[in-house]
Write a structure and sequence with these properties.
The complex is a heterodimer.
Chain A (H helix, E strand, L loop, with lengths): L2 H14 L8 E8 L10 E4 L5 E3 L5 E6 L4 E5 L6 E4 L8 E2 L10 E4 L2 E4 L7 E5 H6 L5 H4 L7 E5 L8 E5 L12 E4 L2 E4 L13 E7 L2 H4 L10 E6 L5 E15 L10 H14 L7 H27 L6 H5 L3 E13 L3 E12 L7 E14 L5 E16 L20 H4 L19 E2 L4 E2 L53 H6 L1 E21 L2 E20 L11 E25 L2 E26 L18 E22 L3 E12 L8 E12 L4 H4 L4 E15 L16 E7 L2 E8 L8 E14 L4 E13 L2 E5 L8 E5 L2 E17 L3 E18 L5 E5 L8 E5 L6 E4 L30 E3 L15 E4 L5 E11 L2 E11 L2 E4 H6 L19 E3 L7 E3 L2 E12 L2 H5 L5 E9 L3 E3 L26 E2 L7 E10 L1
Parallel strand pairs in A: 1-7, 13-16, 47-53
Antiparallel strand pairs in A: 1-4, 2-3, 2-5, 5-6, 8-9, 10-15, 11-12, 13-14, 15-16, 17-18, 17-54, 18-19, 19-20, 20-21, 21-24, 22-23, 24-25, 25-26, 26-27, 27-28, 28-29, 29-30, 30-31, 31-34, 32-33, 34-35, 35-38, 36-37, 38-39, 39-45, 40-41, 41-42, 42-44, 43-48, 45-46, 46-50, 47-49, 50-51, 50-52, 51-54
Helix pairs in contact in A: 5-6
Chain B lengths: L1 H15 L14 E2 H4 L3 H15 L2 H8 L7 E3 L6 H5 L8 H22 L1 H6 L6 H21 L22 H19 L11 H14 L5 H13 L29 E5 L26 H4 L9 E4 L1 H6 L8 H5 E6 L1 E6 L14 E5 H13 L4 E2 L2 H13 L12 E2 H11 L6 H7 L3 H12 L14 H6 L6
Antiparallel strand pairs in B: 2-4, 3-7, 5-6, 8-9
Classes of the chains: A mainly beta, B mainly alpha.
Chain lengths: 1089, 475
């Protein structure tokens, strides 16, 4: 059908819709609340007709009516009122707040529904909560707000991604990340999608939790759905708002890291004083004593350097230096009876708490909705452009948090004096070529005041005096070693931490263009057809620059990399909805068809051996000593879906919902390409029954149950690893100039969906006129046909193969309680709380009983176990036997002992012989803890007294553990010469510390997420200024944050991605190099005019 | 109202008519294996893929062979690296597992070719040498495995999770029988093929067959002699012979002449930036550069201050006075922090992305293997062919030679000569095993340095991960 023909048809349609005129006249009035404040946006409808309007910003409305019409005034959060017209020309209305808010409308997939009639588990967070949060990411604002939603930090940098898990981890290989739906368009599961959304634009966020509510999203709903609804325009005079805040972010120092020189001295003195040498040989005693004195001498030397630098360096202050955050948001909303719009502009800049991370976002949006005069056809469009400019952390914090306090950040004249001028000198004397520090290839002659200091440069300068001091001259000035082969005082040969931060950069620039438009026809009473077309386009450019002198591996070459990704989505959706009531029967149903086409691309350029060691970002062939590494990844994905839903209730008492969806996806094998996802749920509003209607105690009581199946197509968090995986594939390689093909994927044509089967039982209740209300949910969800990149015997030719195998069960309880303790015109106090507990259990692993997974980092082979009957991942290893310690004299001599100042812990520890067979082997490993909390809770309170508002939100999590890998790094137990002398008889009772329970710690916490105090200027004052509303406020985030007693790390909520292979679903809970909690104090302003 | 519905239907269909096409999407990044098996080019490319997979073998082989011998040690006395040196390797060691799986990956690629050889031979222009090379690589990978792990499964077809249990671990004799059979089949397919040191040919397969027989329990020494004698008598048979200068063998990096006539089989790397080939480089990496990191790992900047450093024991034997020629090629003296002796055979030419080729086998080995076969179970020989062969190696190294006809060559002298000739070439450990002295020598070495050797350390345990993933079928 050509375009003209389509236009003609649409025109015909418009013409066909008749207007039935009547004797009518104009009526007007004002709608106010109890405090006589106008309520804008109240829906004023003439019942049984299609005419109606909304109140403007002064609460005024005008409408054509006829006698005996019934006018209905409704607004979210207020009790709906109806008035019968009998000749009045002016009707002023006072709406009273609906205390229980049960008439509140909740957005569900492809529609909305009254909360009162919900039969599913859906939670809503309003814009009030999000606006209170000082964060560039909306998901950070949700922490601790919704029962059953667990949010951890995947990246501690500002704007860094979170990991959201709804009702427990259900997938072994996939991400278990919920589907993100923005303005009705299902975008995907990548947490990055949330970083570009402006919190100021948000009307509400709904979280669909049970399969019955998510099944309408079919193959992508299994891990829950987060629906983000953006604001729309309101008829009336254009209202402008300006919201701004500015604040300061800071971190608290963690004393478990970066010990001072005196703490270090105390430590080795204690070892020396308290050691029992009765078991030691004479040679060991000699070594032990000499190691002790050497260590003391080294500390003496360290003090000289520190004092030349004017004191010790506080590395945490250096790198966690705090920063400012500020936000400016401007919006205009308004419209006429037929056309409304919402336009906004915003800018946020957040410097984060770290030395060189920064997040900036620009957002521009306009949304227009318009109706034909007869209101039979509605048209709307949204365009939204967002630009994110982010300076990302170029490194994790592994280096700064283990750095010695004596090392200056930068060299000065004074500290330069202690640099070894011949770091390569040997016993044969000084040689002019010996000026290069091996390991970094830094020529000490190039060091000047202001150069980045590195520990290795100070090696060899000082000479021990044999008594724990160093040799000094008559003036107390250290005498350098004659051939510069003195004390070796460095803990690392890496360049100083400043080099990683100053001489590297990593930036991300992301542009998102979102456009959507729809046309909606009123076909008959309650029957609507809506056709929409949406597109989302994201380009992301990640740039990396690494200077030659900032590489841990000390490759003496600069590196520059550009990584350019695009993500295009085209979404076409047709929806037919029918909503009507017949007496006591009410029906809300829909049928729909959608088609999604995604195109992905990745272009990567990576070059080492850049000539110019500067921060330009051009890559040219001339820059490289070899040609750049360049490659592309391309991918396409299509999803075709049909779905339908019927929501029926009888007299608001008996509630039923049925829905079904069929999805076909190009991700899966021919044998399993289409999936079917049905669901049913029912509820009984007991309080609507006669026997409860008059009750003074019970004001609301509903029981509900749901059962449904939804699916997940998320094979891998890397989109390119999720596509085409059902086929056996070979990638192109070259060998000795010949093209070869190497098989990368064994393939499985029967690869299909993961399925989630869930039942949910809930009770909603309200007492004393809903002064106390709440809900309790119990759920039982089984994830079946899990897509598992199963480790297979390597003799197959691959270490892994994707298979639909295994089952995981999550079951749990969620409690939500709300109370309105005080609810008077000028004083109100509400407290709400929620509590949730989830249990995760592996039911089947496709025949295997266990999967043991190790970090691929050979020096830190921490392990996890996934075991039938246990949680999806659990820390695994040996149990440290803390009753025994390996005597310090047993460590190898020659300066590699426990007295090396940086070796705070030995590599090996005694472990418990669990099976009691007298030897320590793999069979003595056991489960060491779980990364999942036993329960989590949140508590929020709002108190309004006249013009003052005060609120706070607490959140706690209990029982989760983390493997704090940082400790092994800073105490050097991953690396330390844990080697036990060959003669140590008990060496067969030990195991490497990082394989034991030593670093598995309780990550429980209680956090004061948010505390906020606001003042709204009284109306008489601001009226004179032509202002509608003016509020100033103070907000603090994370001002109180309590860790469990034995937790030594920086952030119990983080589970970062700095270590290869860590924090996948089956290696969860590993921390290494993650940054501390970000605390914020800010002041802000809301202005409406 | 019907009218509208029809109308809506029409509008909707006009949108979706484009989407009715297939959900069948093919990867724009990769080719399917099924496709490759339909053309001769596809088979050749799968074979090249097997060679490419073999690039991972040398990346960590030195950890499991040279560092476990009395020749080499590591720089850092901590971390996992030291466990190879001191015989404390844990069962879930990553490198041990990688060595196992990387060899079976080579086997898998060859099996894709060999499983479909009938179909292949029906294609016009199909060159049977593709099959010969595949047989060779399959045998070589198993030869690697049997020497490290001893009891290994011999995988000679493409297998799945459902049938791997048809391939149990075999004892040493059974495995060697299959290796030898594969080498023999390779020889028959490769007869008369062009001589090359980067791809298998008749000569390569013959020499490896000889070495494999020598390595098996109760070797057939006569057969080895008959296989190698033609190469000893005519040192240009198959084109392999000694270079004039010892140092020329190790033309380091891409710039030197890495194609010298002494090299019988080598693994090729090309200098490049980007991710070098390592034992665990991802098979799914779209770009896997052809550079190697192992030579960088052996330097002071490499794996935790260097690996493959000379042991104190070697330092006393490998001196400029005792080894006037080989010393400077083998050792680079360096004083970084402490006195440590770095090897000079594999100096990287481009950091972590160097182009050194790894020499798997060279002609000097042929000469000395022949001597070994002649000595057989005895203690010495005065066989003239053997003495001459031995002398060629000795002579080039600037050392005294034996007098053919009067002098005899002892087992001990042969072993000592092999040690000096092949330092840092992953030969020493297997030499000790073949000569039956591994336990004695390594125990003495362990006692001297203070390591944890015990006789059970000669063979490594099946990697823990393989045990777990096969539900204990492999153990």
């Amino acid at each position: 059908m050509n375009f003209k023909a389509k236009l003609f048809l649409i025109a015909m349609l418009v013409v066909n819709i008749q207007l039935f005129a009547q004797d009518s006249y104009s009526i007007s009035g004002t709608v106010v609340d109890e405090n006589n404040l106008p309520i804008p946006g109240v829906n004023v409808l003439v019942l049984k007709t299609t005419s109606g309007t909304q109140t403007d910003f002064d609460g005024r409305y005008t409408l054509k009516v006829a006698d005996n019409d019934v006018l209905q005034f409704s607004y979210i959060g207020f009790i709906t009122k109806t008035v019968i017209i009998s000749g009045q020309s002016k009707i002023d209305i006072v709406l009273t707040p609906d205390v229980d808010q049960l008439d509140e409308v909740v957005v569900i997939g492809y529609g909305d529904q009254k909360q009162k009639n919900l039969t599913n588990a859906v939670s809503k967070v309003g814009s009030d909560v999000i606006e209170k949060s000082i964060t560039p990411r909306i998901d950070d604002a949700l922490r601790g707000r919704i029962a059953g939603v667990n949010i951890t930090t995947a990246n501690t940098e500002v704007g860094g991604d979170t990991r959201i898990i709804i009702r427990g981890t259900g997938s072994i290989s996939g991400t278990s990340a919920p589907l993100i739906v923005v303005d009705g368009v299902p975008l995907g599961t990548d947490a990055d999608l949330l970083s570009s959304i402006d919190p100021n634009n948000i009307e509400s966020i709904e979280v669909l939790k049970d399969a019955s509510s998510t099944a309408i999203y079919g193959s992508r709903g299994a891990n829950g759905v987060i629906i983000v609804s953006l604001k729309s325009g309101v008829a009336g005079d254009t209202k402008f708002s300006y919201n701004t805040y500015t604040g300061y972010r800071f971190a608290k120092k963690n004393d478990n890291f970066n010990p001072s020189i005196s703490e270090e001295e105390d430590r080795i003195d204690n070892i020396f004083r308290n050691i029992d040498l009765s078991g030691a040989t004479a040679a060991q005693i000699t070594d032990f004593n000499s190691d002790y004195l050497t260590a003391k001498s080294e500390l003496t030397a360290a003090k000289f350097i520190a004092s030349a630098n004017g004191g010790e360096t506080d590395w945490q202050d250096e790198v966690f230096n705090g920063g400012y955050v500020s936000n400016h948001s401007f919006s205009a909303r308004g419209g006429t009876e037929l056309t409304s719009f919402d336009a906004s502009l915003s800018y946020v800049k957040d410097e984060g708490i770290f030395l060189n991370d920064q997040f900036e976002r620009y957002n521009a949006r306009i949304k227009v909705d318009s109706r034909t005069k007869n209101k039979k056809i509605k048209y709307g469009a949204t365009t939204n452009v967002r630009f994110v400019d982010q300076d990302r952390l170029p490194v994790s914090f592994i280096d700064p948090i283990r750095q010695s306090p004596w090392l200056p950040s930068y060299l000065s004249e004074e500290t330069l004096a202690y640099i070894n001028p011949f770091p390569n000198a040997d016993a044969n004397g000084l040689n002019a070529d010996d000026t290069v520090i091996n390991g970094t290839n830094i020529d000490v002659r190039s060091l000047v005041p202001g150069s980045i200091a590195l520990e290795g440069a100070f090696n060899g300068y000082f000479q021990a005096d044999g008594n724990g001091g160093i040799i000094v001259d008559a003036n107390g000035v250290p005498v350098p070693h004659p051939t510069y082969q003195g004390l070796n005082i460095s803990s690392t040969l890496n360049n100083g931490p400043r080099s990683f931060l100053d001489l590297r950069s990593q930036t991300k620039r992301q542009f998102t263009g979102f456009g959507s438009s729809y046309i909606e026809f009123d076909l008959a009473e309650g029957l609507k057809f809506r056709q929409s077309l949406s597109g989302n386009y994201t380009t992301t450019r990640n740039s990396l620059f690494i200077s030659a002198f900032s590489d841990e591996d000390q490759i003496i070459e600069s590196r520059r990399a550009e990584n350019f990704t695009t993500r295009e989505q085209l979404n076409i959706e047709s929806l037919l909805t029918y909503r009507n009531s017949f007496g006591k029967h009410s029906l809300n149903s829909l049928a729909g068809f959608t088609f999604d086409n995604f195109n992905y691309s990745l272009i990567s350029l990576d070059v080492q051996g850049v000539f110019a060691d500067d921060f330009t970002s051009n890559i040219s062939l001339a820059d490289a000593s070899n040609s750049p590494e360049a490659f592309t990844f391309l991918g396409q994905e299509k999803i075709v879906s049909y779905f339908g839903r019927i929501i029926y209730d009888y007299d608001d008492k008996y509630l039923f919902t049925f829905s079904a969806r069929t999805d076909g996806s190009s991700r899966f094998g021919v044998e399993n390409r289409f999936g079917f996802f049905p669901t049913a749920s029912a509820g009984w509003n007991i309080s609507e029954e006669n026997f409860l209607q008059e009750s003074d105690i019970i004001s609301n009581l509903k029981i509900r149950a749901s059962y449904g199946i939804s699916g997940s197509n998320d094979i891998d968090s890397n989109i390119f690893n999720s596509l085409y995986r059902s086929q056996a594939l070979a990638s192109t390689v070259t060998y000795a100039g010949n093209i070869g093909r190497k098989v990368t994927n064994l393939g499985d044509p029967s690869l299909g969906w993961e399925q989630l089967v869930e039942s949910n039982f809930g009770i909603d209740f309200g007492f004393f006129n809903n002064k106390f209300s709440g809900s309790v949910d119990y759920y039982n969800r089984t994830s079946e046909d899990l897509i598992l990149d199963l480790q297979v015997p390597s003799v197959l030719g691959s270490n892994n193969q994707l298979q639909n195998i295994g089952q995981v069960k999550n079951s749990g309880m969620e409690f939500q309680l709300n109370s309105r303790l005080i609810s008077r015109p000028k004083v109100s106090w509400t407290v709400s709380g929620q509590l949730s507990a989830n249990r995760n259990e592996v039911l089947d692993l496709g025949g295997a009983q266990t999967i043991v997974t190790s970090l691929s980092d050979a020096n830190r082979p921490a392990q996890w176990i996934t075991e039938v009957g246990g949680p999806i991942s659990a820390f695994y290893g040996y149990v440290q036997d803390t009753s025994k310690e390996i005597p310090a004299y047993e460590f190898t001599a020659a300066g590699n002992g426990i007295f090396d100042r940086y070796d705070l812990e030995s590599q090996f520890v005694f472990v418990v012989d669990i099976n009691g067979d007298g030897i320590i082997d793999e069979d003595d490993r056991t489960v060491l803890g779980s990364p999942y909390p036993d329960f989590e809770w949140g508590l929020a309170s709002n108190f309004d007294y006249h013009n003052v508002d005060f609120s706070f939100a607490l959140n706690g999590s209990h029982g989760a553990e983390r493997r704090v890998g940082d400790i092994g790094t800073i105490r050097n137990s991953d690396f330390s010469p844990g080697l036990i002398n060959g003669g140590f008889t008990d060496s067969n009772l030990t195991a490497a510390r990082n394989l034991t329970s030593a670093h598995v710690q309780d990550a429980s916490f209680v956090a004061l997420r948010n505390i906020s105090l606001g003042y709204t200027f009284p109306k008489p004052v601001i009226d004179k200024l032509g202002i509608n509303r003016l509020r100033i406020y103070f907000t603090g985030e994370h001002l109180l944050y309590f860790f469990a007693e034995d937790y030594e790390g920086f952030n119990p909520e983080s589970a970062g991605t700095s270590s290869d292979g860590a924090n996948t679903p089956i290696t969860f809970g590993y921390q290494r190099g993650d940054g501390p909690i970000s605390r914020t104090m800010s002041i802000g302003l809301n202005l409406d005019f | 109202m019907k009218k509208y519905i029809v109308l809506m239907g029409i509008i909707t269909m006009s949108f979706y008519s484009c989407s009715e096409d297939t959900l069948e999407l093919n990867s724009p990044n990769d080719v399917t294996v099924d496709n490759l098996l339909t053309t001769t080019t596809g088979f050749e490319q799968l074979l090249n893929g097997a060679y490419d997979a073999y690039q991972k073998i040398p990346t960590n082989e030195y950890l499991l062979t040279e560092i476990r011998s009395d020749n080499a040690t590591v720089g850092a006395q901590f971390g996992s690296l030291v466990t190879y040196d001191n015989f404390n390797i844990i069962d879930n060691d990553v490198e041990v597992f990688n060595y196992w799986s990387n060899n079976y990956k080579v086997v898998y690629q060859t099996n894709l070719v060999l499983d479909n050889q009938e179909a292949f031979l029906t294609f016009p222009g199909a060159n049977p040498k593709v099959l010969g090379e595949a047989y060779f690589l399959r045998a070589l990978a198993h030869f690697n495995l049997v020497r490290v792990f001893r009891d290994v499964p011999y995988i000679n077809q493409v297998i799945t999770v459902d049938n791997f249990e048809n391939f149990p671990q075999l004892n040493e004799e059974e495995t060697y029988a299959k290796i030898n059979a594969d080498f023999e089949t390779a020889i028959s397919f490769l007869e008369g093929t062009e001589i090359s040191n980067t791809r298998a040919n008749e000569g390569t397969a013959t020499i490896f067959l000889a070495k494999s027989i020598l390595s098996q329990p109760n070797p057939d020494y006569v057969k080895v002699q008959s296989l190698l004698l033609p190469l000893i008598e005519d040192s240009n048979k198959f084109g392999f012979r000694l270079t004039d200068r010892y140092d020329d063998i190790f033309a380091r990096g891409d710039n030197g002449d890495e194609n010298n006539e002494e090299i019988i089989f080598k693994v090729v790397y090309t200098q490049s930036s980007g991710n070098p080939v390592t034992s665990d480089s991802e098979t799914t990496d779209q770009v896997q550069s052809e550079g190697e990191r192992w030579s960088f790992d052996m330097t002071e900047n490499g794996q935790s201050n260097g690996a493959n450093l000379a042991t104190a024991n070697l330092e006393t034997l490998m001196t400029s006075s005792l080894q006037p020629v080989r010393f400077s090629t083998t050792i680079v003296e360096n004083t970084f922090l402490e006195d440590r002796t770095f090897n000079n055979k594999w100096i990287p030419d481009n950091g972590e992305g160097s182009g050194n080729d790894w020499i798997v086998l060279r002609y000097a080995d042929v000469l000395l293997l022949y001597c070994e076969a002649v000595i057989g179970d005895t203690q010495s020989t005065s066989n003239e062919n053997a003495i001459i062969a031995y002398n060629k190696v000795r002579g080039r190294a600037g050392l005294d030679v034996l007098n053919p006809g009067t002098d005899s060559l002892s087992r001990d002298a042969l072993l000592a000569e092999r040690r000096m000739e092949f330092v840092f070439e992953n030969q020493r450990f297997y030499d000790l095993v073949r000569f039956g002295v591994a336990i004695d020598v390594l125990q003495a070495h362990s006692n001297e340095v203070g390591l944890f050797f015990s006789p059970s350390d000669i063979y490594l345990n099946t990697p823990q991960r393989e045990v777990d993933n096969s539900n204990g079928f492999y153990n």
